[in-house]
Amino acid sequence: MKKAHLSAVRILFLSLAFLLLFGCPGQKASREASGLEEVFRAPGEFEKHSAIWIGWSTYEIKKGSSTVPVHLKMIEELVPNVKVKIAVQDSDEMNTVKFLLQENNIPIQNVSFPIIPHGDIWFRDMGPIFIISNKGRLKIVDFNFNTWGSELHSAPLARLEEKVDRLVAKEMGIETIMTRLISEGGNREFNGRGVMITVETVELQRNPNLPRNEIEEEFKRLFGIEKVIWLKKGIYEDDFTSLGTVPGPDGEKNAYRTTTTGGHIDELCRFADSNTILLAQITPEEAKKSLIARENRLRLEENFRILEESTDQDGKPFKIVHMPHPETIYHTLEPGDETYKFISDLNFKDGSVFPKGKKVKVIPAMSYMNFVVTNGIVLAPIYWKPGLPEIIKEKDEQAIKTLQSVFPDRKIVAMDTIIINLGGGGLHCITQHEPAAESF
Prior knowledge:
Blueprint (H helix, E strand, L loop, with lengths): L1 H21 L4 H7 L6 E2 L7 E7 L12 H11 L4 E5 L3 H13 L7 E2 L10 H4 L2 E5 L4 E7 L11 H7 L1 H9 L2 E8 L6 E2 L4 E5 H7 L5 H12 L3 E5 L14 E2 L5 E5 L11 E3 L4 E6 L2 H4 L3 H18 L10 E6 L6 E3 L4 H7 L15 E4 L8 E3 L2 E6 L7 H17 L4 E6 L1 H4 L9 E5 L5
Parallel strand pairs: 2-3, 3-4, 6-7, 9-10, 12-17, 14-15, 19-20
Antiparallel strand pairs: 1-5, 2-21, 5-6, 8-9, 11-12, 13-14, 16-17, 18-19
C-alpha cells in the first residue's frame, strides 16, 4: 500500500511539473484569448478607424485644375465621422490649410496637422501601414519605396517618400517593423482575419531578385496573415506609362496613360467585409467596344477565376460581388501640366516618340473600386458630367447602388475625382487609415 501510494504521489508530482513547463492542451490559445500574449494583425479597412491620414497636395496635376477642392470635400465629409490627420510640409502650410478649412466652414476640432515632409499626395502608398495588437497597440510596417518601380530607392524623391512612414511613427510615438521589401499600400487588401490579396506583377516588378514564395513569407511575417491570394494583373489603364501609346478616341495608338503604378489592387478588387470581395467587371458586350475594354475583360475574368477557386482563412469560399468598370474617358494634357511633363520625359518601350510641345490625349486610371471606407461613410468616385454619354451616368448609379448594398449601414457620398485620376490614382490612393484600438 505504501509503495502504491508513493507511486501515485510521484505520478501526480511529475504531471504537475509537466503542466508547469509545457502547459495543458489549449492553454496557449487561452493565454492569447485572455490577452497575456500580444498578437499583431493587419485589420480590414472596413473595421473601425481612429483616423484618416491625408497628405496635402504639393503641386497642380493639371494647370488651372487644383486638387484642393477634392481635398476640402473629402475632409468636410470625413470630420463628422472620424479624425482627419492632414500631413503638411511646415508651419506655414499648416496655417494655409487651416485658413482654407475655416474659409469653407469646415470645423477643425476633429482635424490635426502633423508636419510630415512629403513629395506627393499618394499617402496610401508611402504613408504609414498600420498593424494592431490584441492589446490595442499600433505598429507601422516600414517598407522600402522606389517611386512605383520607376526609380532606384536611392533617388531623391524615393528617399523623401520612403521616410514618411517613419516620421509618422515618430510623431505618434510608436514602433516600426523594418522590411527590405519594396511595396506600396495600394497593392494590398486585407480581410482582417488572415487573408491578403495582391497583384503578382506589381510585387515581382518591385522585388525582381526575390521569388514569389519568399515575398509571401515576408508578408506573412509582417502582417500576421495565413494566406496570400495572388491576382495576375491590374487594369490596362494602370499599366506603366513607359510601355508606350494606347488606343485614342479614333482607335489609333496615339494616346497615353497618365502616371501609373503598374497595376495596383485598389483599382480592381477590394474587401467589403471579411468574406465579401468586390471585383470590377467588364461584360462581353462592353469588351466589343474597344481594345482597352477587351484587354480589361481578359484580365478581370482571369482574376475572377482565381478568386472563385480561393478560400478564406477557414477554408470557406468568398462571396464575390461585381462592380462596373468606368467607360474610357479621354482628357487633354498640354505643356505646363505637371503630368504632361512626367510623360514627355519618358523613354517608351514601344519605340514611340512623344510629341513634345503639342497637346496629347490621355486615359486616366479611373475606377469605381478606388473608394474610401471609414466609420459610417464611404467616399465614392463618379465620372458623369453634362455633355458626356448617359452610359457613364448609368454606371455611376450602378456603382453607388452596389456600394450601398455591401455597406448598408454607411452613407455613400459620391464625388467627382477626375483631377486626382489624372495624376495617376484616386480617393483611396490619397488617404491612409489608422485603425482603432477596439478593432481587434
